[in-house]
UniProtKB/TrEMBL annotation:
The keyword Iron-sulfur appears for this protein: no
Source domain of life: Eukaryota
Protein name listed in UniProt: DNA endonuclease activator Ctp1 C-terminal domain-containing protein
InterPro entries for this protein: Ctp1_C, RBBP8-like
A GO molecular-function descriptor: damaged DNA binding
Keywords: DNA damage, Nucleus
N-terminal signal peptide: none
Taxonomic source organism: Varanus komodoensis
Amino acid sequence: FPEGERERKIATCSRHRSRYAPPDTPDNFWEVGFPSTQMCVERGYIKEDLSPCPRPKRRQPYNVMFSPKGKEQKT
């Protein structure tokens, strides 16, 4: 193709490329294998929380069905 015709052909075939750009892949997407624990912490996959998690509390306390062992009546 001559230079001018080639430019026109490229402009007609490839004009949609300027409208849509595919999104980039995330960082470290193409790395094969599992990352080390240190690498996961650095990337933010693992959040280290040094405080112990609080125990969940019941909204309603349990109903007492039996008296405790130490308070049984002896007859």
